Amino acid sequence: MNKITREKGQFKVVGTRDKRPDGIDKVTGRAQYGADLVVPGMLTGAILRSPHAHATINSIDTSEAEALPGVKAVVTRADFAALDDADMIDIADNCLARDKVLYHGHAVAGVAAKDAQTARKALKLIKVDYTPLPHVTDVDAAMKPGAPVVQSGRQEENVQSEHSENVTGYCEFGHGDVEAGFAKADHI
Q1: 143 touches 167 (CB < 8 A)
Q2: Which of 42, 68, 76, 115 is the most exposed place for a label (fewest CB within 10 A)?
Q3: Which domains does the chain have, with CATH numbers?
Q4: 55 with 132: CB under 8 angstroms?
Q5: What global pTM score does this model have?
C-alpha cells in the first residue's frame, strides 16, 4: 500500500489556514446576516405545522387569526387552488397541506403579521380539525402491501404487485453479468 505524502509548501490552499477577517464578528454575535435585517413596514411570517404524521383535514378556521390586530394575511391551501393542475399538484401539496397532512410538521397555514409575537399569537388562534390516520415511519414497512397509503392514485403501471400503493414508480436498469463478474473476481 502506497502512503501519500506531501512536502511542506506543496499546496497553496490545502493544509493552510485562511485569514478570517469576519471570524471575531461571527463568534461574538456582532456579524449581521440577512435574517437580522429589519426595515420599516416589514412583515414577519410564521407557519402552522401539523402535529400529526398522517391525518385528514376536516376544516380550518382562520377567522380569529385574521381578526387579530397586526395580522396582514392568513393563507391556507384553499388560497392556491390554481396550483391543483397535474403539473403543480405534487409541489403544491408539499408546500401546504390540502385535504390531508402527509407528515409530521407538514405546513397547514401561513401568517404574515407586523411582528413575530403577533404572528405566533395568530398561529394559536387558527383552529384545525384533524382526523388522525394510520401511519408508518419505516420505509420498508411503507412499501409492504396493506401499509397505510399516504397519497392514493399516484402509482404507475410498472410497479410490482408485491408493493403497496406508496411505491409510485419502479425502475430497474443495469448492464453486464453479475455472476460472470463474481466468477472472474479474486475476492467477493
Answers
A1: yes
A2: 42
A3: 42-132 (3.90.1170.50), 136-178 (no CATH)
A4: yes
A5: 0.70
Of residues 65, 145, 177, 61, the one with CA closest to residue 111:
65
Least confident segment among 2-16, 62-76, 108-122, 156-170: 2-16
**Rounded CA separation 50/58 (Å):** 13
CB-based contact 47:88 (threshold 8 Å): no
Question: What tens digit of pLDDT does each residue of 106-147 get?
Answer: 999 999 999 999 999 999 999 999 999 999 988 888 888 888
Report yes or no: 98 and 77 within 8 Å, Cβ to Cβ. yes
Q: In DSSP terms, which residues pair with 56 in a beta bridge?
A: 100, 131
* Per-residue cell: 9: 509548501
* Nine-digit cell string for 180: 460472470
Side chain identity, residue 166: N
Cα–Cα distance measured from residue 57 to residue 102, given in angstroms and rounded to the nearest whole number: 11
